[in-house]
Design brief:
By secondary structure, the chain is an alpha/beta fold. It contains 9 helices and 10 strands. It has helices at 36-46, 67-74, 77-84, 96-104, 122-128, 147-165, 184-192, 222-234, 245-256; strands at 2-3, 6-7, 13-19, 50-54, 89-92, 109-112, 132-136, 172-175, 204-206, 239-242. The strands form 2 sheets. The chain has an 8-stranded parallel barrel, surrounded by 6 helices. The protein has a two-stranded antiparallel sheet with strand order 1-2.
């Protein structure tokens, strides 16, 4: 997969989460205009190979903010990072207007938690910049019955939307959407069978970092996150989207050495 000037091929690579939000569920991921570059510098130094910038929390029970607020929070952030660091930048949004602004400022990828289905202009906007995309599974209601057909069909549909709009095939990855429209049991079923998503035909991204499926306090969820990352390595997942870069890089190296 290609994002910006980097080609991700073999192995598992770290995407660092940087949130420009006051309400993300993991407090240490929250940044402001004043702390953004420091957070980016630390992530890069610890081994992140792509940064994912979010201007809206999508934690369970979140209150949506509109495109205007996302744009306000993102203002100048992409340009600042790209000026300072030679690293691909992804922007976590499902608004085409936000994607357009971010891509015009130098973002390389859009991470859409609604898999290009929330905003009918999203796929076309990404294609117009020759940018990369991560397509995530989501649904308005919690899944019931067999989860696999529903997740795979959604992602295949979304990939078709991407290709039809002109997004290049090697700039697409897919995410099963752990923590979105799934019960705790379904999240573990998805995680433990994540390799089944290879049937869709695109590289995989896993986003399980410190999520509520692991139980307990968010502060105590690092170890199960690292176990999920090691599992991702064994299952051939290309990207893991995480809060704790250094620990996850070390977990990947450990798993790859086994």
């Amino acid at each position: 997969m290609k994002a910006g000037n980097k080609i991700f091929s073999r192995g598992t690579h770290v995407m660092a989460i940087i949130n420009l939000t006051p309400d993300s569920f993991w407090g240490l991921s929250r940044q402001t205009e004043n702390t953004l570059l420091h957070a980016a510098e630390r992530a890069v130094a610890e081994g992140a190979e792509i940064l994912d910038i979010g201007a809206q929390s999508t934690r369970p029970g979140y209150t949506e903010v509109g495109a205007d607020e996302e744009l306000k929070r993102l203002s100048g952030a992409i340009k600042s990072i790209k000026k300072r660091f030679d690293i691909p930048v992804s922007v976590d949004t499902y608004f085409a207007r936000v994607a357009d602004a971010a891509l015009s400022e130098g973002a390389d990828m859009i991470n859409d938690i609604w898999g290009l289905t929330h905003d009918s202009d999203m796929a076309r906007t990404i294609a117009s910049y020759n940018a990369a995309v991560c397509i995530m599974h989501n649904a308005k209601e919690c899944l019931s019955g067999d989860i696999w057909g529903q997740i795979i069909n959604f992602l295949k549909n979304s990939a078709s939307l991407a290709l039809a709009a002109g997004i290049i095939e090697d700039k697409i990855c897919v995410d099963g959407g752990i923590g979105f429209a799934k019960s705790r049991e379904q999240n573990f079923e998805l995680l433990n069978g994540y390799e089944r998503l290879h049937d869709i035909g695109f590289p995989l991204l896993l986003g399980a970092s410190r999520k509520s499926m692991f139980g307990g306090r968010v502060e105590d969820r690092l170890q199960p996150t690292l176990e999920a990352t090691k599992l991702a390595v064994r299952k051939g997942v290309l990207l893991v989207r995480v809060h704790d870069v250094k620990s996850n890089v070390e977990a990947i190296r450990e798993a790859e050495g086994q």
